[in-house]
Structure formats: structure tokens, C-alpha cells
Amino acid sequence: MKAKELKSLVQDKYGHIVQQSLTHNQTSCCGSTNCCEETDYTIFSDDYTNLAGYNPDADLGLGCGLPTEFAGIQKGNHVLDLGSGAGNDCFVARTLVGDEGKVTGLDFTEAMIQKASANLAKTVFKNIEFILGDIENIPLKDNSIDVVISNCVLNLVPDKQKAFAEIYRVLKTKGHFCISDIVLNGNLPKKLKEAAEMYAGCVSGALQNDKYLEIIKQQGFNHIEIKRKKEVKIPNSILLNYINLEEIRAFKRAKTGIYSITITAYK
Question: Residue 191 burial by CB count (10 A; 0-12/13-18/19+): exposed, middle or buried?
């Protein structure tokens, strides 16, 4: 699919997901009552419940790590969360920046912005904002952000070079990012790679691990470090929606690795 079609697909799927709770998303595959035959968008998610600032209303189980854990966020920082969804990481980041800091959540799905804003309205916080925008064209000024975070979102962006160039642009000098994302070691079967649902589920759009790191380097970042790497196994029950049993066996023999990584880099 072309970039415009991929973006439309993601907006549509996540527009459905946002209508459901975390529990519903975990028990009905992808959070929409008409897609249980497809994929489970919560299979990569980590447990947020013990983190300070955790807001259960904002947790849709769509991440693949805990970027705030390694982000080195300080009091007074301005933090930008790319693909902020219902606001899960933003509420955690707000605890870290304190009253004197600021958190901006950016998402290009209008339903997610509405959900996050509704969650914010239930709080007393005045230093969180949620804005509609595209990661490939971030609507913020140059050199305005201390820390960029993102959780299982960059793999959904068609032009990842442009996305990281935009992250570099908005970061202040010596600012940094901490991103959790999905990467590959080895090749996916063709049917998985071409499946729209697997793209929206953060698999088909994932880059090779080395390619991901190279794109970051190409944009001028330094001190690149993988803080955490965890292999993720896709259950056969999901794979069987796209490939047959023999193809699953061949896939596993190939030992293609699907990994959740949390990575930091500095401008």
C-alpha cells in the first residue's frame, strides 16, 4: 500500500480501538467487536499499573515497552509523546516533569485526541496538552523539546527517515529521545508482510534492527543505546489468520526474531 493508504488504515483501526477499554482490548483481540478474526494489538504491551502517575482510563494496552523508565526525564522538562493515544505515557511523564514542566501528546487519530482530552479533563493538570498532528510533519517549533518519547508507534509511520528527522528538528541541542518500538532480525513471510492487519498491529511495518539504528544515525543522533530488548512471540492462533500451519513451521525454522526494543539517542 501507498503511504496515504497505510495512514488511513492506522487511523481507522485505532479509531475503533479507542472506543474500548484495556480489558476489552485484551479479551476481544483488537478492541473492535467486528475484528476478532484478525489480530491482537495488545500482545506487546507491558504493565503500567505500578508506575507513578498511571491513569487506567488512558491505558489501552497498545505499547511495547515503558519508555519513561529509561527516558531520564527531569523536573521542568518539556516532553513530547509521539503517538500519545489515550494519554497513557503522558500522564506518567507528567509526574516526572512536575508542575514546572510540560507534556505534549501528539496523535494523528482524532478519536484518540478526543479520548486523551476527556481523560485530562478528569484531572487537575494544567501542563498537559494533546494536539492533532502527523509525526512526519510535527507541528512544533525547532529546538523546543527536551525529551521525545514514543511507545510502539514509529513502526506505523511510512517514512521513518522523515519521522526521525522531525524528532531531531524539534529537540533542543543535547536533548534526547527514548522510544520503544518493534524491530526484526530476519524476514517475515510474504503473507505476513503484506497483511494490512499485521501492519496496524506493529509487525509488518517493523524494520530490521540494523536498518532502524542506521536511520537514527543518518539523522545526526549520537550516543545511541538500546536500553532493553525483549523477544516477542506471536501466538499460532494469530499467525493462522494469515499463513497455514506449514508456513508457520517454516517461519519458526527460519528463526526470524521479532523484538521489542527501548532505545535512546541524543541530539
Answer: middle
pLDDT at 36: 39
Measured torsion, CA atoms of residues 128, 134, 139, 143, in degrees rounded to the nearest 10? 80
Of residues 108, 119, 166, 126, the one with CA closest to residue 142: 166
> Of the candidates 158, 240, 260, which has an alpha carbon nearest to the alpha carbon of residue 199?
158
How many CA within 13 A on the CB side of residue 185? 10
2 to 6, 78, 83: CA distances (angstroms): 6, 34, 20
- Whole-model pTM: value is 0.89
Dihedral over alpha carbons 161, 259, 69, 133 (to 10 degrees): 40
Q: What's the farthest any 2 CA atoms get from each other in the chain?
A: 57
Type of residue at 151: N
Q: Assign 82 to helix, strand or coil.
A: strand
Question: Read out DSSP for 162-182?
Answer: HHHHHHHHHEEEEEEEEEEEE
Q: Model confidence over 113-147: pLDDT tens digits?
A: 999 999 999 999 999 999 999 999 999 999 999 99
Instruction: Give the mean pLDDT of 224-228.
Output: 97
Band of residue 199 on the pLDDT scale cut at 50, 70, 90: low
- Amino acid in position 33: T
Collapsed DSSP state (helix, strand, coil) of residue 105: strand
| Structural domains in the chain, sorted by start | 3-266 (3.40.50.150)
